[in-house]
Each structure stands twice: as C-alpha cells, then as structure tokens.
Design goal:
Low-confidence stretches: none
Distance between the termini: 56 Å
Largest sheet: 8 strands, mixed
Helix content: 25-40%
Radius of gyration: 21 Å
Number of helices: 9
Mean pLDDT: 93
Strand order of the largest sheet: 8-9-10-7-11-12-13-14
CATH architecture of the largest domain: 2-Layer Sandwich
Shape: globular
CATH superfamily of the largest domain: Dihydrodipicolinate Reductase, domain 2
Order of helices and strands: EHEHEHEHEHEHEHEEEEEEEHH
C-alpha cells in the first residue's frame, strides 16, 4: 500500500518538528512557507519533498492526502477554511482558533464537508496520559474526584499572548479527555509583572458535574521547571511528573475511610506504573494518518478542540476583566 503524503503548512518553531517526524515515518510530501530562504534549507535537507511559498499552489497540485497547519494561531482560521473547502483532512496545531465563533465555523464546515478536523493537543497522545485514562476507566482509583495540573518554568515569555493561552491548552485538553464532560463553572485569576496586560502566572479553577473539581496553575515566571499532573480518586491517587527524569507515573494507594464516622487515613503502598515509551508527536501524526480514510476521530477532534477553545476564551476574558 502506498504511503500517505502529508503537506506541512508553516515550517517554523513547531512546524519543523512535524516535518522531521513525518519524514521519519515516511509520510512527508510537501512543505509550505512564505520564507524562501527557509524553504531552500528544507529543499536541501529533504530533496524528495515538494516545496511551495504559498498555500494555493499546494492545494492546486492536488497531490496531498492531508495537511498539517503549524502557523501562528491568528492565521489558523483562514488557512484551515481554505483547506477544508478544498475537501482535505487537516491537523491544526493548538489552539484551533482564537475565538469561539471561528472555532465553531471550522467545526461546522468540516462536518458539512465530511472532513476530519483534528487539533494538535499533543498530550492526549502521551502514553502516560493514555494510561491514566485507562486506569480511570478501569476504576482503579475509584470515583474521580479532583484533578490538578502545574505547568511552571522560568521559560519563554511571549509578547503576543498571555501565559494561560500559551501553556494551559495542554492541561485543559487533558482535563477534558480524562473527565469527559463540559465545565459547569470557571474561575480564573492572574498576576502581571513583566508586561502590562499580559499575565505571567494564572490559577484557574474548573468545576465539572458529578462533583469533580480541578485547577490549573501555569507560570513562566517560576524558579524551576515543574510539569505535574495529579488525579485524585475515592480509593487511590495518581501522579505524573513530565518534567522529572524518567517521567514517573505513580499510583498512591491512599484514601480516607469514614466507616466509623470519623475520617481515618488509609496510607497504602506507592507503585511505579510502567507505560509505553513512545513519542507523543509520532503517535499523534500516526493517528491522523490512520484516519485519512475519513474514519471518525475519537481523540483530539473538532468537538474536543471547540470545548477547549470555549474554556480558553472564558477564562481569558476573566483575566482581562480582573486586570
């Protein structure tokens, strides 16, 4: 069977990772970028690949089975609309768009055209996150009660977006995936120190049905790197620390017992959980390629991305109001 050919639109900061990974799995077909010097470099590195300095030329070739869009977020809507109207399946890097209206339009258009619209919520393809999802489904931790995430670092400070829009999409998508329902209430607050009107640290509380709570703490003004996810259940707890060596996933057999009417702590063993050591980006792209036949996406689809966009916009508006 012939390998599928994918065209990457945007060969910059994250696009180059898509290019490298698609080349590794034998599915890189083309590259689109307006920077001709950059195109020349990729033409030297990948001599078998077609290059285009504009999207229209790539679409006109009618050579590709699907497109990956890794351009700045403010360009996603117009680029995605052209690709979907051309009846091509598409993977768009997060966030889907910067507005709920534009995200809704793209989801509706993809449904109308019977096109798979996928969004690059990479962490949903991390083997550890998939393992946590299975553990919740298998009721290993009992009833899901509380999820929280810290994504902190003295990291890259952006001037065009605040830290919530920059870092929190990862965690919002994970929460949506693990919990499987829409928020009932969102409360978001932030602190601004480096640039006026652009929060550096934010704390967002999210309440879901079935009395499930969560919070997301993100900051690019922090003395050390921490990427920690904690999942609390009625019978046990899970931690995943993506920033630590070995990226440990642990199960804590800890809970409170109210059998005698008084909370008694049950402090059981801590178990290191093994999970597959596969690269999330390769898993994500392979999943997209497997669905180029039009089979329905179950993960990171347009509906999921629209839900993430709604939370981003809702919380983002609160951050502006609270300035």
């Amino acid at each position: 069977m012939n390998k599928k050919k994918i065209c990457v639109v945007g060969a910059g900061y994250w696009g180059k990772n898509h290019i490298r990974t698609l080349d590794k799995i034998g599915c890189l077909g083309g590259i689109v970028d307006s920077d001709k010097n950059l195109l020349n470099k990729f033409r030297d590195d990948y001599s078998y690949v077609l290059t285009h300095d504009n999207l229209q030329e790539a679409l006109f070739k009618n050579f590709y089975d699907g497109y990956v869009v890794a351009t700045p977020a403010e360009t996603h809507f117009e680029i995605a609309k052209k690709i979907i109207n051309h009846s091509n399946h598409i993977l768009i890097e997060k966030p889907l768009t910067l507005s709920i209206d534009h995200a809704t339009q793209l989801v509706d258009l993809a449904n109308k055209k019977n096109i798979n619209l996928m969004v690059g919520h990479l962490m949903l393809f991390h083997p550890a996150i998939k393992k946590i999802k299975q553990m919740i489904k298998d009721e290993i931790i009992g009833d899901l009660q509380y999820v929280y995430s810290n994504r902190l670092n003295l990291g890259k400070v952006r001037t065009e977006e605040n830290v919530f829009w920059s870092l929190a999409p990862h965690d919002i998508s994970i929460f949506d995936y693990l919990i499987g329902s829409s928020p009932k209430k969102i409360i978001s607050n932030g602190s601004t120190f480096l640039q006026e009107g652009i929060p550096d640290s934010t704390l967002t509380q999210i309440k879901y049905k079935n009395n499930i709570d969560g919070h997301i703490f993100v900051s690019w003004l922090h003395p050390f790197k921490e990427q920690r996810l904690v999942v609390i259940g009625s019978n046990a707890m899970i931690t995943f620390e993506d920033s630590k060596d070995g990226k440990p996933l642990k199960l804590y057999t800890k809970k409170f017992d109210f059998e005698n009417g008084i909370p008694e702590k049950i402090d059981g063993p801590i178990t290191l959980i093994e999970y597959d050591n596969r690269m999330p980006l390769e898993e994500e792209l392979s999943y997209f390629i497997k669905h180029l036949d039009g089979k329905k996406l179950e993960i990171a689809n347009g509906k999921h991305a629209l839900e993430v966009t709604k939370i981003l916009v809702n919380a983002g508006n609160q951050l502006i109001e609270n300035e």
